[in-house]
Amino acid sequence: MMASGLVNLLAGRKIRTVFLPVSGEETELRDAGARLMVYLPDRPYWLLVVLRQVACLLDRNGGRLSVLILSRSSASWIWRSLQKLVKKESFLGGVRLAPSDLPCSSLAALMLRDWECTVSLKKQALEEEQVSGIQPEGMTKKELDVLVDSLAGQAIQEQARQRGVSHKTLYVQRRSGLKKMAHPMLYEKTPLVKNKQKGPLPSGTVSPLSPFEREFVHAIHNRQVYPVFQPIVDGGIQLKGLEILARWERNGQIMQPAEFLPQIRSGYAWRLLTALMLQEAICGINQYRGAYYFSVNIPAAISGSESLIEMIKQLSTRLINPFWTDRLVLEISESLNLLDRHESRFLITQLQHLGYRVMLDDCFSRSSVYFPVRAVRFNDYKLDRKVVEDAQYEPHALALIKSLAFYCDLTGSHCVAEGIDSREKLSLLRASGVHLFQGYSISQPVFKFELAQMIADLKKRETVQPIA
C-alpha cells in the first residue's frame, strides 16, 4: 500500500518504477543510476524483515545503490544495525533517511530531486547520537534472524533444530535482540503518557516526536533550517555582537521562528536546533578572532538539562582560543520562572563559572513572570521589543528602561534594546542610558555569506549620528 502511494506521488513524471518483493533476497539491480526507495514499517516484524532485505540488496549490488529509507525509527539505530548487517560499511555510503510521515508535497519533492544532495544516514545518525547522548547497539544478523522467526510464530525449539544450535544460544540471541529493539528513540512516534500536557516536557524525558517535529528534525539535518545573523551595535553603530536566529525553508516558503517554534515540544528537537545554533556561534567566534560576541537563545525546555552543559563544553573545545568563551552569550527568556526551576538556576551559575556570559532576554515583556535578579545574577539584560515600543509614549515603560540601564551601570552589565526600527527610538534609548542596540533600522538579519559585507557596511556608518 505504501509503495503504491509513493508511485502515485510520481504519477505523470515519466519516471519508471519497479516493485521489489520483500522476500526477494536474490534481487540485483542492474540499471545504471537505479535508485531504491524503501519504506521501513513501524511494526517490529516488518521493520526487521525489510531492514534485512535492504542489507541483502546493498551486499548484492556492492554498495552501488542510492537508497532512500522512509521510516519513523531512529537514524542512529538504523545506521548501527546496517553496519553489522552489511559486509562492508562502505556499502552504506549511498543510504539516506527521511521521515515516512513527511507531508505528501515534501515527499514528492524529495523523490523528484537528487536525494544524494541530502545528508547521509551516517552523518544524520552521528548528529543524533551527539545531541541525544545515546549510542545504540546495532542488531546483528543472528539476532535479527531469530527475532524475525520468533515474531513470525516459530518456536525456539524448531529454530534450534533447523539451525543446529542449542536452545540456550537462541534464547540469548533473542534476548539481546529484544534489548536492542528497546532503544528509547526507536518508538518516539507513540506518546508515553495518556494525558497529554501542553508546553515543554520535563527535562530528561524522552518525549514523543510528532509528525511536524520529525519533519523539523529532518529539515535541521538537511540544513533547511539555517541560521541568520542580526548585529548588535553601540550608540555609534560600532558592531559589538550578533544574535543568531533560525529560519526554515519549508516547501519553498521561508518560515519565521514564531511560525514553527511554538509547535516544538520534544526535548530532542530543541537540543538539535540549539546544537546547530551553537556550532554556528563557535564558527563565527573563530572566524572573527573573538572580535564580536555571538548570542544563542536557550529554549526553556532544555534550560535545566545537564546534556546542554555537556554540549556547550564539547562544542567549545573547537574554539581556537580557550579564552574566547566569554564571546559566547547564552540568552535565557525572562518568561522562565527560575524560582520553580532549580536546575535552570544551577545551570546558569555553572555556565558563568565556565566563563560564558548569560543574558536575560525579553525583560519587561507582557509574559514576564518576574524580574529574577535576586535568584540569579546575569551578565547582560535585553529589553523586550514591546517595552521599547511603549517607551515612546508611556512614561512607566520608559522609567522601567531607565531603571534597568542604571542597574546595569552599577553592576557592570550591559543593557541591550531590541526592536530598534527608527532613529527616534535609538535617540530616546541612548538618552535613557541603554548601551547596545539591535533592530531593523540598524540591519535586518543576514545570511552567513552576507556577514562580511554587512560588517563592512556598518564600519562605514560608525558615526555620532548613527542612523541617516
From TrEMBL:
Keyword Hydrolase: yes
Top class in the EC scheme: hydrolase
Organism: Cedecea lapagei
Domain EAL, chain residue ranges per copy: 209-459
GO molecular function annotation: cyclic-guanylate-specific phosphodiesterase activity
Protein name per its UniProtKB record: Cyclic di-GMP phosphodiesterase yahA
EC number, UniProt record: 3.1.4.-
UniProt KW keywords: Hydrolase
Listed Pfam families: EAL (PF00563)
